[in-house]
Design brief:
The chain contains four helices and two strands. It is mainly alpha-helical. This is Vms1-associating treble clef domain-containing protein.
C-alpha cells in the first residue's frame, strides 16, 4: 500500500507467493500473491497487446500513405479542369472535396479583387477611391483603401459593415 513503484509492490507479492504463512498479508494490504505463472500470463497478454498495437499502427501508416498518394495524384489535375471520373480514379474523401472547394472559392475572390484593383487603376485612381468618400459607418476617409461594399454603402472595415447593418436593421 505504501510502495509507490510497481516493481517494489511486485517484490512484496512475489515474497507473499513463496511465504504465505510468514506474515499477515491482509493486514499489510498486499493484494494477491505473484507467482511465475501469473507473471508469464501477464507477459503473454502484454505481448499480445503490443502486437495488436503495432499491427494497428502499421495499418494506419498504410492508410496515410494511400491517402497521400491519392492526394498527390489528384493535385496533379488542375482544380478548374477535373477529369471525368473513371473506374481507375482514386476515391476522394469529403475533407479533400471541402479543401478543394475552399481553394476554388479563394481563387475566385482573389481574381475578383484583382479585377477591382485593375478597374480602379484604369479609372485613374491608383491609390484607391477618391479622397472625398467617407466610411458609411464611422465617416473615416477611404482614401488609399479598398472599401468593403454592402448595397450602396462603403465601409473601411468589416466591423463597420456589421455595425452599420445592425443600425439599419434596428432603425
Amino acid at each position: 500500500m505504501l510502495a509507490r513503484e510497481k516493481e517494489v509492490r511486485n517484490t512484496f507479492r512475489r515474497f507473499m507467493a513463496e511465504n504465505l504463512d510468514r506474515w499477515d498479508w491482509q493486514a499489510a494490504h498486499v493484494p494477491s500473491p505473484l507467482t511465475k505463472e501469473v507473471e508469464e500470463s501477464q507477459a503473454v497478454k502484454q505481448a499480445e497487446k503490443d502486437a495488436k498495437r503495432k499491427a494497428k499502427a502499421k495499418e494506419l501508416k498504410k492508410l496515410r500513405k494511400a491517402k497521400e498518394k491519392a492526394k498527390q495524384s489528384t493535385v496533379r489535375v488542375a482544380p478548374s479542369r477535373q477529369q471525368p471520373s473513371s473506374s481507375f480514379a482514386a476515391p476522394i474523401s469529403k475533407e479533400e472535396e471541402e479543401k478543394r472547394a475552399l481553394a476554388e472559392e479563394r481563387e475566385k475572390r482573389a481574381g475578383a479583387a484583382e479585377r477591382r484593383i485593375a478597374a480602379m487603376q484604369n479609372k485613374g485612381c491608383a491609390a484607391g477611391f477618391a479622397d472625398d468618400i467617407p466610411c458609411s459607418c464611422c465617416n473615416s476617409s477611404l482614401a488609399g483603401k479598398i472599401p468593403f461594399h454592402r448595397y450602396h454603402y462603403k465601409y473601411c472595415s468589416t466591423t463597420c459593415m456589421h455595425i452599420h447593418r445592425e443600425i439599419l436593421e434596428d432603425g
